[in-house]
Each structure stands twice: as C-alpha cells, then as structure tokens.
Write a structure and sequence with these properties.
Blueprint (H helix, E strand, L loop, with lengths): L30 E4 L4 E4 L2 E2 H7 L2 H10 L5 H12 L6 H9 L6 H15 L9 H27 L12 H10 L10 H13 L7 H10 L5 H13 L6 H14 L4 H9 L20 H17 L4 H14 L2 H5 L6 H11 L7 H22 L26
Antiparallel strand pairs: 1-2, 2-3
Helix pairs in contact: 2-17, 3-6, 5-6, 5-10, 6-7, 6-17, 8-13, 8-17, 9-10, 9-17, 10-17, 11-14, 11-16, 13-16
The structure holds acetyl coenzyme *A (ACO).
The site of acetyl coenzyme *A has 19 residues, from α16.
Length: 401
Amino acid sequence: SIDISKLRGATGLITMDPGYKNTGSCESKITFLDGEEGKLLYRGYPIEQIADKSNFEEVMFLLLKGELPTQEELDGFVADIRKNTEVAEELVQMLNAFPQGAHPMGILSSLTSALSAFNPEKISVATEEEMYDAAVTLLGQFPVIAAWTQRKIKGLPLTKSDSSLSYVENFYQMLFNDGTEGYKADPVIVDAFDKLLILHADHEQNCSASTVRLVGSSHAGIFASISAGISALWGPLHGGANQAVLEMLEAIQNDGGDVAKFINKAKDKEDPFRLMGFGHRVYKNFDPRARIIKVAADNVLTTLGINDPILDIAKGLEQACLEDDYFKSRQLYPNVDFYSGIIYKALDIPTDMFTVMFAVGRLPGWIAQWMEMRQTNQPIGRPRQLYTGAATRDYVEMSAR
Ligand code: ACO
C-alpha cells in the first residue's frame, strides 16, 4: 500500500497531471494562445497579421529578441545567420553513412546533435552574446542540413547555401535547385513556403518545446536540446501528423474514397485509429493557423495548376467531420497539419520529409524557448511521480525464484 501522506515535493504536495493537461511549466513572454477563442499571438502580434505582413526572417528576430526589428537590426541579424551557413565536411560523411531508407527525422536529429562536436565552444553558454552566437550558428546550419537530408533521400548531389537569397528562398533552392543555369524559384511558391514556416514558428509549451526546455534545463547545449526537440516532434501525435495525414488521405483514396468509413473507424473506441490532422490539445475551436494555411494551399494548387483528387478527399473529410456529432461534441477540428501536407505534396517534397519542414519552421521558436529558459534561470526540470509498484520486499536468490 502507498502512503499518500508521503506525496510531498520540495515545495508542497505533488499534483498528478498525466500529459500535463493542466500544468504550467514556466512563465513565458513569447507566444500566447487561447484555445477556446482560437487565438494565437507571437510576442503580442496576431498570427493573421504576421502571416499577412511579415516574413520568416523578421519572425525569427521577433521570437528571439521580443520586438520587431528596424531595417538595420534585421540586416545585422540576417548577416549573422549567413556567416554561419558553412557546414563541416565531416557532416557530409556522416550523412552519407546513413542507409538510403533512413527516416529524415532520424538523420536530422543525429546531425543536429553532431553539430556540438564541430562547435564545442558553443555548448556552454553564460552570456547573452554567447547565447545569440549559438543561436545564429544553428539557424545558419540547420536549413543546410535539412535540405541535404532531402537531397540524400532523393539520391541527388548536395547543394550549397546562396547568401544572396532570403532565408526561405535559399532553403527552397537548396532543396530543389536542379543545377540548371539561372535556376530561380517561383516567388508565389516561396511566399507560400514562407507562410508555412511562419505558422509553425512557435506554439508555446507543446511536446517538442517542452522537451527543448527540459533537456536545456540541465544546461546541455543548444545542439543537444534542439536535437531532443526534433525527436519529440517526430511522433505522429505531434509534428509527424503532417506525414500521417497524407498517408491517411492516400489510404482513403486507395480504399475507394469512402470518407464515412474512415470516420466511423475513428469513432470506434475499440479501434486505435484516429483521424490524423484532427483535434488539438489546446485548441477546442478552429486552429487559427489552419484557416490561413487552407487559403495558402488553395493558392499553391492554383499556381501550380494541380487538380489533386487527394484535396477533394481532404475537403470531403473536413466537411463530414464538421457535421458529425462525435467530432462536434469533442471539439475536434482540422489542425494546421491537416493542410500543410497538401502543400508539401504539391511542392514535390517527399512525404517523410514533411516533418523536417515543420522542424525548420519551428527552429526559431525552440531557440527562443531555450534562450528564455536560460535567461530566466529556470531550475532543472524534474517531475515527481505517484509510485504504484511493490512495497519493500526482500531480495530472492536465483535458486529460490
Ligand atoms: N480522431 C478521433 N478521435 C479523436 C481524435 C482524432 N483525431 N482526437 C481526439 N479524439 C477523441 C479521443 O479519443 C477522446 O475521446 P473520448 O472522450 O471518447 O475518450 C477525445 O477526442 C479527447 O481526446 P484526447 O486524447 O483527450 O485529446 P488530447 O488533447 O490528449 O490529444 C491530440 C490531442 C494528440 C492532438 C489528438 O487529438 C490526436 O491524436 N489527433 C490526431 C493526431 C494529430 O493530428 N496531431 C497533430 C496535433 S497538432 C501539432 O502537433 C502541430
């Protein structure tokens, strides 16, 4: 039997909250979200205004520094990132050592962690300058590694960073540059890509951001902390949902397109199947990012002249769920990942690269969370538990078991 009176933590009684549904882990000035209202603010600015008027470079600055930059500040920030786009040659060898079918998220987290080996002086940070230096190092090298991961799984030669381009256009060309003379990405596509990255840039204390903070709270360096966040993002209940959504839509298509059949499967409590891209831990109203991304998805498909039957299945599924009592009563609406996969597919990004795209978007948010955690001297994260195992008993010799 358990002595409940022993459930005492360092500063009071222990609370049990599996999944931390009602537990705050920190104070934060970065992102506000109101799940009932479907509201999302970055540093106080509504996501709708940011997605409409800003760009990813500015959003990275805003998340990290707390304010919108002047032109001079932005130029300095972008220049600092550009100084850090050179990735160690040994990382190419590591990339080549992965088997062809390796999942890109595994490659990305490994190479991100490996960056600590090539930037040892940036692991231990004490001052603002050191934190900023570690941050721009990672912001510079990360898209290169992410793009190389796609080149690797597509069996294409690696591309180089082009410092004459914006952060997003450069990432895009590293993904897709086919080596033709004067290669130039379509500005409408780059714009939609920019929006996608903005919408993913931060989302307060989600599974991956909390992981970054928890690992970082032991004062492990930025590369190890972000690598842990990448692993957390990988799962299909979090960032991996965008890959799972597309696989689900394809499964519905291959099965003859009967949306109702899959909805019934998701409602069956004996069946572990869930509709991917529906529901959210915090949003119990429409995900504001989903509204914006839905429009961007339409624009991309129109620009590219794509008439994808998968999109019709997605629209049918969305409509049927909005009218279904099970989904209505549980306030399960499409989330951002329901639509992002449709854009990525249209851009010819391989399905298992979708979550890597999410990671590139989320990187500045993770870094901002990591910095804030260090700046506010957050104590090491160390939850307690309710022990339900055996009471004290005597060791049994092998011969007597
Ligand atoms: N399909 C069917 N039923 C669902 C779904 C779904 N996608 N999501 C939740 N439910 C049901 C649950 O079974 C539960 O039903 P019950 O009350 O009858 O037991 C109820 O809705 C509440 O669900 P919870 O599991 O308590 O919700 P929780 O907050 O723990 O989980 C989560 C949120 C993980 C996002 C969940 O909705 C889910 O698995 N969705 C599908 C995966 C997905 O799209 N993830 C991406 C999230 S967004 C992001 O990370 C960027």
